[in-house]
Amino acid sequence: MDLGLGDAVALITGASRGIGRATAELLVQEGCRVAITGRDEDTLRRAVQELGGEERVLGIQGDMTKTQDIDRAVSATLERFGQIDVLVTCAGSSPGGLLENLTEEEWLGSMNLKFLGYVRSCRAVLPHMLQRGSGSVVLVVGNDGLKPSYWEMTAGAANAADLNFASSLAEQYGPHGIRVNTVNPGPVDTDRWDGLEKAFARDKGVDQQTAHELAVSSIPLGRICTPQEVANVVAFVGSPRASFLNGAHIPIDGGQRKALMDVPVTAREGVGAAQV
To answer: What is the pLDDT of residue 98?
Structure first.
């Protein structure tokens, strides 16, 4: 399907790897000019080259916890491409852990990046979209904003705030031709998920392989999602083909039931062999 994105401009935060990177790759294939941000300059430079080079892809090093970095990214995108039609926010991670082990710094770091980073990005881009009278915003928000789990508490709190924020923006900016939606993945095969598996294994007293098997067993489709599968949904939601989609929160988690991961202590032995 032609998504109708030919020659549109997309700004994607956190796009040097993972879901953001997969989304950038797909949007370039659809004909978009794309600006991507990332914190690590070497990773970002490599992503730009692999995505097709500087003619259609602009790499902007920056930290989305810093307002000045976001403002600089938006200004650089407008200077290079003249417009921003689609904003995709992917820059966000939160530490896994239990309440008694999480530090205040970890809570503040999660909210500062995963929630306030999204707020800053929208605040910087929406005035431009408002001036143009059109635009699409897609916030990539983990499914723990919709399906809480106590071992992903910081992410769940930040993501729930993102959902409320997106709903509010959709109502405010919809009358001005700007759509705001969220895409909500569960476990996705990225470096970040590897870290969450390790944290889950630590807190549950199991090895990482068992943690992985528990995650898979919680998903009726029987496997972990790929970044490309999330990117497919993000690209569609951000495109003109989703022209009447506004204020939606779209799960892409294979129907995950997180409670199935929470095995009792007595059931932990031999989980790899059993179907939980």
So the answer is: 85
Span of 108-112, 181-185, 204-208 with lowest mean pLDDT? 204-208
The span from the CA of 252 to the CA of 95, in Å, is 21
Angle at 23 between CA 130 and CA 188, to 5 degrees: 120
Q: What is the sign of the dihedral through the CA atoms of 83, 174, 248 and 14?
A: positive
Cα–Cα dist 35/62, whole Å = 12
How far apart, in whole angstroms, are the C-alpha atoms of residue 9 and residue 32? Answer: 6
Q: What is the DSSP string of 186-242?
A: -SBSSHHHHHHHHHHHHHHT--HHHHHHHHHHTSTTSSPBPHHHHHHHHHHHHSGGG
The pLDDT tens digits of the residues spanning 72-103 come to 999 999 999 999 999 999 987 788 788 998 99
Write out the two tokens for 49: 């080259």
Residue-by-residue DSSP string for 66-89: -HHHHHHHHHHHHHHHS---EEEE
